[in-house]
Amino acid sequence: MVRKAKETDDVVTFVVKRIDDRLVKTSLPGQYVTVRMRMPDGKLQPRQYSLTRADDGEHRQFSVKRVRDEGAGPDGEMSTLLHDSVKVGDTLTLSLPYGDVVLDDAGRPVVFASAGIGIAPMAGMLSHLVAAESGLPVTLLHADVDDASFPLRRQVVGDILALRNARMYLWFEQGAQSHEPVDGVFHGLMDPTAVDLPEDALYYLCGPLPFMQAVRSGLVDRGVAPRDIQYEVFGPDLWQADLD
Ligand SMILES: Cc1cc2nc3c(=O)[nH]c(=O)nc-3n(C[C@H](O)[C@H](O)[C@H](O)COP(=O)(O)OP(=O)(O)OC[C@H]3O[C@@H](n4cnc5c(N)ncnc54)[C@H](O)[C@@H]3O)c2cc1C
Known about the structure:
Blueprint: E1 3-6, E2 11-17, E3 32-38, E4 44-50, E5 59-65, H1 77-84, E6 93-94, E7 110-115, H2 119-131, E8 138-144, H3 153-162, E9 166-172, E10 184-187, E11 202-206, H4 209-221, E12 229-232
Parallel strand pairs: 7-8, 7-11, 8-9, 9-10, 11-12
Antiparallel strand pairs: 1-2, 2-5, 3-4, 3-6
Helix pairs in contact: 2-3
Bound molecules: flavin-adenine dinucleotide.
């Protein structure tokens, strides 16, 4: 691992550089890797983390939210280890990139809707669009507590500004102000009907399950075809059934 940077109080970004010379599969925009680590009890455990930057063939970047004990269970095992114990210079074991929720290159406008660490796959897809110098109409809708809690904020805002045809709207639980040059900031929960969205867009959602359920039904009520809405679930696959 070559870089560890604090994004917010709860989120740290890791950049790893490969040290083997095996054939590397380039990641598709939106894919994730599995990180495998030995836990304090000696067991090897896997966890998935979305890639938050386009590949350069050598480095991979991902961001980890610390999962805290909120009365219902213990602190998250791997996120705590990654936050507290893993240091620059340590070796991490990563899988090849995989995952089916990848950016469609059909040329249709794209709308990303994320909350909290759900920005991670969106950051990866945006980074790929910038690398491809894409002129696609892109709209990013993001919900968070406030500016300071918005992970990968600088990277994402920089990428939105670098794209020729991109807009960005924020929803904050606290206040309705951002230091970033965005197209709109609203107070409260995300309401996609508050902004103009392109016709015939493809939608990508990532965030807590109630967030994705609310945004998805708002979009479907507005006439968006369910087949045009994809979502990444940061948990067991069976959660996906709850969205339908
Ligand atoms: C496709 C995909 C992409 C993902 N991308 C990202 C990403 O980019 N960034 C990111 O931060 N995360 C991402 N995740 C989530 C990530 O993989 C981990 O699930 C997350 O980091 C938590 O892992 P952990 O080991 O810290 O928590 P765990 O130890 O797995 O704990 C998870 C939860 O279970 C509770 N729990 C554990 N044991 C018990 C018990 N005995 N009794 C009651 N409750 C218990 C814990 O309190 C905690 O709330 C992604 C997941 C998927 C599936």
